[in-house]
Amino acid sequence: MSRQLFGTDGVRGRANSDPMTAETAMRIGMAAGLVFNRGDHRHRVVIGKDTRLSGYMIEQALTAGFLSVGMDVLLLGPIPTPAVAFLTRAMRADVGVMISASHNPYEDNGIKLFGPDGYKLSDTIEQQIEELVFDPPADRLAGPDSIGRATRMNEPIGRYLEAVKASAPRGLSLAGLKIVIDCAHGAAYKVAPQVLWELGAEVVPLGVHPDGFNINKECGSTDTGALQTRVQKEKADIGIALDGDADRVVLVSEKGRVIDGDQLMATVADRWQRAGRLAGGGVVATVMSNLGLERFLGARKLCLVRTQVGDRYVLERMREGKFNLGGEQSGHIIMTDHATTGDGLMAALQALAAMNAAGRPASETFLAFEPVPQLLKNVRVNDAGAALKASAVTAAISAAEKKLGKTGRVLVRKSGTEPLIRVMAEGDDSELVRAVVDQIIEAIPRQAA
Q: Which of 102, 135, 154 is at the close of a domain?
């Protein structure tokens, strides 16, 4: 059975349209409850969400599904994705759920699932859940005396806040630092400014007034314009931008320059290697990471292991190779010594610790390498699979690879979360990079666009 629901980061789509309807959410709750209903103990699930209006609908539908198969539900309310992963394990829940479409606009929503160990589910388990969604066994519903109970937790964020602070190097003080934090009107709008303030920083909060519609709108890690302006206006030492569910982070230097996940990984890897705590002999990243990162690590006799796009695939490879640092250029930074998934706040604290230790401004601390010219363009299509198989497209890709040779790369793929084809190329010649990207885009069939 082919995958119809799950993409690279759970289930995602436009709210109140298939598959992100209340009915499908209820079926997912039932199916996941059946898969994780193991043993004779009283089973429980924790459910968190970001600040989208549709989160109320999806939350209630999921709750009904889980209750119907006899699982108790603990409702966490608005809370970061990594907090859900943490609390799933800390509270000995059988499954954790985060309702979020991450960096997407409010019109979208999604469902991310975590196993009892706090890790995202494997493809195999997602397949089991998907099969039960489309073919639910009616005879496995709970009896009237076994229906689950739902409880809304009061202030669940406190336990996660302490875990975030504990992940920082011992004695880390942010006293004397002025930090602008953009929470994208998302899940971390309370906890992120609080963590920074408790560690001593002067905090200037942005994106902390969610209204159900403004999540990720002209703010956050995918739109840093307002943050860049505010950092310079405030004469702040650094800016931090989270996305809607706070599992990714990018920084802005005191000069207003964006610092992406590649630079963060390079800086942290170098610091950890010097301290003798970098495991695996390198870093795990995706095919999207800049060639400059690979060269930076290679010069230090460290490897860069690449995976397909998606932080879950990065994490799987990290666990296989016993790496403790990995992530994505977009800002998903995974540090398995501290968390089971990408955590924007934990990554930000590691970055701030590196800046403190260096005794230099952010513009110098986080320029670990000069990025190789890289260009990424998106093309919206109806059928990405058909478009990528078109002979004109495959020929254009082949021609681009020949032009760039061994000093560059071409990557053309369909998005796992949106109806897009992503066309990326990088190489030492920026004009050539631009030309080959445009040629590939022009080759995409008009009927697919």
A: 154
Structure letter (DSSP) for residue 93: -
Catalytic residue check, 102: yes
Interatomic CA distance for residues 283 and 297, integer angstroms: 8
Q: Which of 54, 68, 100, 102 is catalytic?
A: 102
State whether 267 and 144 are in the same domain.
no
Q: Which domain-ending residue is among 257, 288, 309?
A: 257
How far is residue 26's CA from residue 133's CA, in Å, rounded to a whole number? 9
Relative orientation angle of helices 344-358 and 157-167, to the nearest 10 degrees: 30
Quick: pLDDT tens for 58-81.
Answer: 999 999 999 999 999 999 999 999
Q: What is the pTM of this model?
A: 0.91
Burial of 77 (0-12, 13-18, 19+ CB in 10 A): middle
Claim to verify: residue 54 and residue 74 sit in the same structural domain: yes
Rounded CA separation 201/186 (Å): 21
pLDDT for 138 beyond 80: no
